[in-house]
Amino acid sequence: MKAALSIKTSLVAMALVLSGCATTNPQDPFEGFNRAMFTFNDKVDQVAVKPAAEVYSNVVPQFVQIGVGNFFGNLGDVWTAINNFLQGKVEDGFSDVMRVAVNSTFGFAGVLDIGSEAGLTKHREDFGQTLGKWGVKSGPYVVLPIFGSSTLRDTAAMPVDMGADLWSYYDPVRWRNAGSIVRLVDLRASVLDASNLVEEAALDRYVFVRDAYLQRRQSKVYDGDAPSSKYEHDVGPTEAIDESAGKNLPASASEPATGPVVKLEKNEGAGTMPVAETKQ
Prior knowledge:
This protein has 280 residues and is mostly helical. The chain is 57% helix and 3% strand.
């Protein structure tokens, strides 16, 4: 699985280079390729993922949906803690460790979010954010097949995030696969309203999702205290985005909008499949 992902990442990078899709936007030099992937991902979402999420949202009791999100979120808190330590945010890292300890014991393996009730703030960190904190530039915006919105830096970090996903080691495999499907559908269900809003309101959904994703990722890397420019200095200017509309986008969502292609962050952990945005 991990080897296949590395091969897929390499092939995507090669396709981007060979595409030679020049644009006037320095942040999005592969716009032709990205739009094609965006359309493909949107079709997958409309045909398969979104209908399943709508059924799930309407049929599964709300408390069960909350429990599913909490369970996978608790697994993700482990990787978040490690990334906080790697970024030098020791206090946040210890807080995450306490969250995992409390939720795993008193919260029935994380099904109940006792940590939040106890005042332990939930954080969401992934290896792409850690690389950004270490000074690695984001590089151009890319849209990955199925995984959705990303940058070259986040794409390179994705195998590490997926390798750190504790659920990927669960046995037996049939239960692991079943849980992964439930996780994907639950994430998509959590952003149904937001994705519907984008579908109805945005004149160009591709541009809307791209700009919102880049703005959000920059904010997450700098913990809300970004440089004066709208995005990281290495990627250059872009179109303005309606701030109020951006707030309605799904979080990944290892964030993630529209289709199974925008990062989600309901309670995502490492390797979360982007569903309607994109990465944790």
